[in-house]
Amino acid sequence: MTLPPFAELQDRVAIVTGAAQGIGRNTAVTLARHGMPVVLADLNDDRGSRVEAEIQEAGGRAAYVHADVGTMAGCELMVQTALDRFGGVYALVNNARWHPRDKLVDVTEADWDRSQDVLIKSHFMACKLAIPHMIAGGGGSIVGISSAHAIQANAIEGPYEAAKAAINALMRNVAVAYGEHNIRANSILPGGIMTDVKYEAAALAPTPELDARQALQNPICRRGDAQDIANAVLFLVSDLASFVTGESLVVDGGLSIELPGSATTRMTGLEV
Fold first, then answer.
1. DSSP secondary structure string, 143-160?
2. What's the domain count of the chain?
3. Is residue 270 part of a domain?
4. Catalytic sites, residue numbers
5. Is 225 in contact with 218 (CB distance < 8 Å)?
6. What is the reported pLDDT for 212?
7. Which residue range forms the structural domain that includes residue 81?
């Protein structure tokens, strides 16, 4: 008899970084809903504890850990929590972020270093620590949350864009180096995503006309939601993606594929 989709995820242990809010929160809740025990790594104790409680109240298993994933000690703590609480590591979703928003010449060295620690070095450290346990358990799936900023740019997010591009390359390296151990590694490039924090901000200061214009920027004519990214993660950690590795999956409603003139015509009705 064929099992329903995602049934194989039952009892496979996941770690999600930046799990207290946004894409990380939706991802953690989604994986837990499909039977995965989830370690929630973050520095926001209030929100992180709320996500832990949300999962547990729904019948899932979760452990929140206050961990600075921009440090080796923080990554060691979250991996050890997975081992101690749930007995292993199967899925690793590196999602944590921190970065300045300034033009490059205005970025301080300290902010550059901190942003790279959180945005890309954390992926290296988490992989370094988790992969041996994945090998011992017979395999695993690693997902690096990259960004549309890895392939597009604006004026004030140089550190972010540099790190997000590096995530795609690192996941390809992991895919090649550890595929023989049944470990897959992929990245997801979200674009134009609304998260719980953004919804909260929008409720306090609604901008319906701006929201409508932003929705029309995408060929699919709606804003993305954090759940859209969580669904992509669910696919990549599942056996449905058992032959998918080293890929950079763009999830942006078509934003990055369209010529500017085409988008302008849709948004204004004027031929460009």
1. EEE--GGGT---TTBHHH
2. 1
3. no
4. 160
5. no
6. 86
7. 7-195+225-256
